[in-house]
Amino acid sequence: MNTDPKAPERLYELVYRVLRDHLEADELPEGLVLLEGPIAEFFGTSRAPVQKALQMLNEEQRILRFEGRGYVVSKTGGNTVPIRMDIRQSGLTLPGDIDEAMKSRSSWQRIYGRIEREVATAAAFGRYRIHEARLASLFQVSRTVARDVLGRLHERGLVQKSSSSRWIAGPLTAAAMKEMYEIRKLLEPAALASAAPHLDRAVLTNMRDHMLTLELDHTNLTPELLHQFDRFLHVECLMKIDNKRMTSIIRQNQLPLATAQTFQQYLGLADESATLSEHRLVLELLIKESVDAAAAALVAHLESAQKRTLARLKVFSVVPAPQFSPFLVKTR
């Protein structure tokens, strides 16, 4: 979980805390079936943070896997009779401080994607200062929400704090990119090996099949799908490990993932057959439980990705900068 006392709690941490507190206080009935969908609707969030929170509670044996879908509340760990009821009538409530925090997180989630794309794009064109007040005004959110967004961008290595405590994006240089790839080649294969036992083979197989289909026919291949594949392999799979310091460092070196979409937007969608093939090979080996081979394949993929990225960065240097939103101010 988040170990930085100054950082805002992540959504899954908020969901986990509420459910844990209710379980510890015996406020949820024995046998209550907990499903991701209804809980996500109750919290006003997506299923992903709920899934993570339920997995954590299951690992702590606060809830048990249910023979059907989801989990079941069981204080005894024995044969509990499942109770299916509306989660809103189960005794689950949302404390005031959590309610406000959830609203804040929902606000930053709503605007995060657009801001991330624009910041990553700007970084490729030079050094930009991020004007926090303008960002908040432009997206009609509070300064607190704006800071939440910037904090998330900082976690992923997309922005930095200057010596005068101003938020800065870029410049994206070849030297910086090489450093990030060196870190990724050291950490990501080790993280993948640690995460392998926790990966769902059905999910891996579905993603592998999707990649194979697009390899054979690129007609439906889009930058968004490529980004989805990147995030699945380099983020979702790797975040399954328990070493939170390692996951934090991995997240801080994800600028190459964010800038890949920028390159595709301004340089066009190049032949991505190699990228798809490299991703698919890693998944194939994970499905076969050849973990060491999968880690080695990931190293090979990152080495190839580094070469492709540096080549695109060189071409990108002659592309004129577009007009960015007013919250991005070009600096020297």
Description:
With 332 residues, the chain is of the alpha+beta class. The chain has 13 helices and seven strands. Helix 2 packs across helix 3 and helix 9 runs antiparallel to helix 11. It is globular, with a radius of gyration of 22 Å. 29% of the residues are buried. Mean pLDDT is 85; it is low at 3-7. It comes from Pelagibius litoralis. This is GntR family transcriptional regulator.
Q: What is the annotated CATH architecture of the largest domain?
A: Up-down Bundle
Question: CATH first level of the largest domain: which class?
Answer: Mainly Alpha
Structural class: alpha+beta
**Looking at the structure, what is the overall shape?**
globular
Tally of helical segments: 13
Order of helices and strands: HEHHEEHEHHEEHHHHHHHE
Q: What is the terminal separation in angstroms?
A: 37 Å
Q: Total strand count, please?
A: 7
Low-pLDDT runs: 3-7
- Count of domain modules: 3
Q: How much of the sequence is in beta strands? A: 5-15%
Largest sheet: 4 strands, antiparallel
- Order of strands across the widest beta sheet? 5-6-4-7
State the fourth-level CATH superfamily of the largest domain. GntR ligand-binding domain-like
Gyration radius from CA atoms, angstroms: 22 Å
- Would you give the CATH topology of the largest domain? Four Helix Bundle (Hemerythrin (Met), subunit A)
Percent range for helical residues? Answer: 55-70%
- Report the average pLDDT across residues: 85
InterPro entries: GntR_C, TF_FadR/GntR_C, Tscrpt_reg_HTH_GntR, WH-like_DNA-bd_sf, WH_DNA-bd_sf
GO molecular function: DNA binding; DNA-binding transcription factor activity
Protein name: GntR family transcriptional regulator
Keywords: DNA-binding, Transcription, Transcription regulation
